[in-house]
Amino acid sequence: MSSFTVRTAKSEDRLFLVTLMAALQDAERELSPNRTPGSEMGDAHLAYLEETVEQQNGQIYVAESQEGIVGFVVCFVEKLDEGDLHIVEQEREYGYISDLYVVPTMRKYGAGAELMRAAERHFFDLHLKIVRVGLLCSNESAAKFYQKSGYQPYEVLYEKHLNEV
What pTM was estimated for this model as a whole? Predict the structure, then answer.
């Protein structure tokens, strides 16, 4: 078992985070062909997430071993619109985990679970009651991981591609 620590990402981590973001995207691309290749979007998407984290009281955490950064998680606060009265008021603001990735060789050693705990602690410190995470329906390994971490399905989004109507 490899040891690692989880910490807030630093500016000097950015180049490696871009590489990991591209790897995450390519992994999702294997599950869903509508994903842009990681090499084409990694830097720009990370920049977008950095801005979102800044604006929405979020964090980017990294898991680091003696070999270097082995994973990351991006989390921020989401708020429903004032008119979203179908959800009770205390759950209209919630923590959202938008991206989580651990390099394949470090999976099953607890890095993902520790990254999730860091995000959850961040939201707990903000006095939020709910944390949500999204995943592709075909990503069964991610679904198992999240369920093992105490998450359960909340909403399912279906999609249909319209070729001819």
Answer: 0.91
